[in-house]
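Pipeline run #58 for the internal structure catalog. This entry was flagged by the ingest filter as a single-chain record with no existing model, so it goes straight to prediction. Upstream metadata was stripped on purpose; only the residue string is passed forward. Reviewer on rotation: M.T. Logging verbosity set to normal.
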Amino acid sequence: MQNNNNARYEQYRKEMNRKKAKKTARNRLIILQVVVFLLIFGAISALIFIPGNSSLADITGIYPSSLESEKIVPATAVIDNSPLVKEISSEVYSSNAILVYLSSGEVIAAKSPDEKIYPASLTKILTAIVVLEHFEDVNVMLEVPADIYAYLIQENASCAGFVANEKVKVIDLLYGVMLPSGADACLTLVRAVAGNEQAFAKKMTDKAHQIGAVNTNFTNSTGLHDDNHYTTVRDMSIILKYALENETFRTLFTTESYTTPATNKHKYGLTFSNTTFNAFKRGGLTNNYVKGGKTGFTGEARLCLATLGEKNGKEYILVTVGAGSGSSNKGVQHAQDANYIYQNYTLS
């Protein structure tokens, strides 16, 4: 009996040792796998971030601007899908251009999209969206300040036609900003929102950076030239994409003409026409694609145009600057470029 018990015990001990050895081997394998994984991960990380090798941009498809290479544009902003982005032909008049899918923000085609540019009255796109986000009720009445006109005359700024002490709704002032590019309407809204141009310009720049337009710095609401008032066409496409998410802005941007209600200074109101559509008409151009837009011009910026276009059921944003000779805003090269780019770079 004793021998049997010893035999069973010996068998039990051997079985326990076998299981223990198996468990130890399994644990060692797990540890080895973890070590191998960490070594591989460390090697890949080193390859990604060693200068001269692939960068974070190669992994994410998000590219920093050449103006401030340390900043990465957020993924919610307009993005490149390089190397699929087409280079826009040098045949266009504009020095800088970018074409983007509205829905996704994907860049389709570009020409020097990260070069520093002056936006002229494309600035007013951001002016309008900052105002819209400030006022819960766009039917609030404002009074046009009398003291803005000396400055506007001095700067030879374009005006919508409002006069001193005219009482106008916010929405009508916004139509004055976007369609005839009225600086009188801009400055009236600026006073109501921020008190002065400097404070309002800070709100504009802050908003631009918040939405991913990190290479933008605005010093005024109108786009009148200032060396420190600059952006890129990529940033302007980000700003326009963001603004078009606001339905009121989209209506403003796509309206061809608008007449305000009667005011205390204009018995029959004021009628505005969109300078974008006027450019196509002035050039005798057939507009097959553009649904809305905003023009701009200064001697330094030359002819600028930001448009919402549609082709075969897809919507696009196109921003172009630097067309024409720089001596006149009567040219139509920006409209010609829009037609050419929509025709040749969008999906057929």
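catalog note: The radius of gyration is 30 Å.
catalog note: The CA atoms of residues 189 and 195 lie 9 Å apart.
status: ready for reviewer M.T.
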